């Protein structure tokens, strides 16, 4: 803690003055509890619905400066990592704190690769889903189901057991995702190919037909790697917070990851990339963009893929994704939705409403357009987000378990309901209770 970093707070009810330490720009909410009006007073709490201004942990994983559009993993700018690293290299960095040496990298890739297989019973489990089941629902359920295959995973305080589950989750996530995809198309599942890279193998499990060996397009495999790097972690977002919160009860990492993935699936979080494509479909053509933006400004819905709780400047990931899109389109042909998206961005960025509210394109604005050009249907987009974010969730989970200050997450509330009431037996009740 820096010297003389304190706040002095006067309690106007008692006229008592308190000096509380500031650390990393934060006071401890527990320091407020000494501020009491008498011995029976519980003490002051802080009220912060949706955690707008509450740090729930200390973390050394990801740094974001939302006003300046900066994102760094373990100190390295995401732009540099996206240009120079593979996804698994970045995964190693996020999980273990340092970039791997060549031999550490070889071992890491080998370990992850040898955990890509899933138990045959998982395939049977997947067969039970309806043909039009949403792939995200299938992914969430099957990740949770892995918990029933690895009962030792419950020993979350054992670092070796933890490491094994981390390898399993990172290895198996693309396999489950690809199986969910092929299930929705009625295609037979494809087994992992250990000779391929992480993203090439994923493409193999998605798109292999009858050829004996799948050969991935290197530009598309690299674009997937870049997209995976950009999605790998984003500090205390909704799903990371769920991962930490559920994990704080020492639930096993499979059910905990399923809970985080469930949080990701919502349209205000990872589900936004799917919604962006639906929005672009609804807009239909460049000419309709001004009318659509007007509708949004009149309060009819939100411009999906725009705005962010933390970034009040351009999301740095969106800038890299826009560049990756051009490279992908050279292989796949240009997605016609891009022109509508560019027009939405052009008009929104010069519009007073969006300027005033500091709304810029976020990571989800362009990612769906790339995924669609590669051949994915919109319902797969959030699954594509969940695969790399698993690394971030696990890094956050591991850090939380190793942090001596963390305990089971259990917020307080400001109770607004009735005081103690007298019970009235059923037959004597004349007025109807208020609906909840
Ligand atoms: N379109 C139109 N208005 C918006 C938008 C938008 N996309 N986002 C925020 N606003 C307005 C909102 O109506 C409010 O206006 P006012 O103050 O006049 O009532 C103001 O901006 C602040 O909004 P907020 O909901 O308090 O902001 P938040 O920080 O709670 O929400 C957000 C952040 C990402 C949920 C929100 O911007 C949003 O709903 N965006 C669209 C969904 C989206 O693209 N989500 C992906 C986020 S990035 C990836 C991820 O997290 O997975």
Written overview of the protein:
- With 436 residues, this protein is mainly alpha-helical.
- The protein has helices at 78-84, 87-96, 102-113, 120-127, 135-146, 159-185, 198-207, 218-231, 238-247, 253-264, 272-283, 289-297, 316-332, 337-349, 352-356, 363-374, 381-402, and strands at residues 6-11, 16-23, 26-27, 62-65, 70-73, 76-77.
- It has a domain at 1-55.
- Helix content is 49%, strand content 6%.
- Helix 6 (159-185) packs parallel to helix 7 (198-207) and helix 9 (238-247) packs across helix 17 (381-402).
- The radius of gyration is 24 Å and the shape is globular.
- The model has no long low-confidence stretch (mean pLDDT 94).
- The structure holds carboxymethyl coenzyme *A.
- Residues 237, 268-270, 272, 296, 302-309, 357, 359, 362-364 line the site of carboxymethyl coenzyme *A.
Give the DSSP E fraction (strand runs of 2 or more residues): 5-15%
Instruction: Please mark out the parts with pLDDT under 50 across 5 or more consecutive residues, or reply none.
Output: none
Distance between the termini: 47 Å
Oligomer: single chain
Average pLDDT, rounded to a whole number, is: 94
Keywords, please?
436 residues; three-stranded antiparallel beta sheet; globular; 6 strands; 6% strand; binds carboxymethyl coenzyme *A
């Amino acid at each position: 803690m820096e010297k003389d970093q304190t706040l002095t707070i006067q309690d106007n009810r008692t006229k008592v003055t308190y000096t509380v330490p500031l650390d990393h720009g934060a006071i401890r909410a527990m320091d407020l509890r000494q501020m009491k009006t008498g011995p029976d007073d519980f003490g002051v709490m802080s009220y912060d619905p949706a955690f707008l201004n509450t740090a729930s942990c200390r973390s050394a994983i990801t740094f974001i400066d939302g006003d300046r559009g900066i994102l760094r993993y373990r100190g390295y700018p995401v732009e540099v990592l996206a240009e120079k690293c593979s996804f698994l290299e970045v995964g190693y960095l996020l999980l273990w704190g340092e970039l791997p040496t060549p031999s550490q990298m070889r071992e890491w890739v080998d370990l992850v690769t040898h955990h890509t297989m899933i138990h045959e019973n998982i395939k049977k489990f997947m067969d039970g889903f309806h043909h039009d089941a949403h792939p995200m629902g299938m992914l969430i359920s099957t990740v949770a189901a892995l918990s029933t295959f690895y009962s030792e995973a419950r020993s979350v305080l054992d670092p070796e057991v933890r490491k094994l589950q981390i390898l399993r989750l990172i290895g198996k996530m693309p396999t489950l995702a690809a199986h969910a995809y092929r299930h929705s198309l009625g295609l037979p599942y494809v087994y992992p190919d250990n000779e391929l890279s992480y993203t090439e193998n994923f493409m193999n499990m998605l798109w292999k037909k009858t050829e004996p060996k799948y050969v991935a397009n290197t530009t598309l495999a690299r674009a997937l790697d870049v997209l995976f790097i950009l999605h790998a972690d984003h500090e205390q977002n909704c799903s990371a917070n769920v991962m930490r919160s559920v994990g704080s009860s020492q639930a096993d990492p499979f059910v905990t990851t399923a809970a985080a993935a469930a949080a990701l699936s919502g349209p205000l979080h990872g589900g936004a990339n799917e919604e962006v494509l639906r929005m672009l479909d609804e807009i239909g053509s460049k000419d309709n963009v001004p009318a659509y933006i007007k509708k949004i400004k009149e309060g009819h819905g939100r411009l999906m893929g725009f705005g962010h709780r933390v970034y009040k400047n351009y999301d740095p990931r969106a800038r890299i994704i826009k560049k990756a899109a051009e490279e992908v389109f050279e292989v796949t042909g240009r997605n016609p939705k891009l022109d509508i998206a560019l027009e939405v961005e052009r008009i929104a960025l010069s519009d007073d409403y969006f300027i005033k509210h500091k709304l810029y394109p976020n990571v989800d604005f362009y990612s769906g357009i790339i995924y669609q050009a590669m051949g994915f249907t919109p319902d797969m987009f959030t699954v594509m987000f969940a695969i790399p974010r698993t690394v971030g969730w696990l890094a956050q989970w591991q850090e939380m378990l190793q942090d001596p200050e963390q305990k089971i997450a259990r917020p307080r509330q400001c109770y607004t309901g009735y005081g103690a009431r007298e019970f009235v037996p059923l037959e004597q009740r004349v007025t109807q209770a208020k609906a909840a």
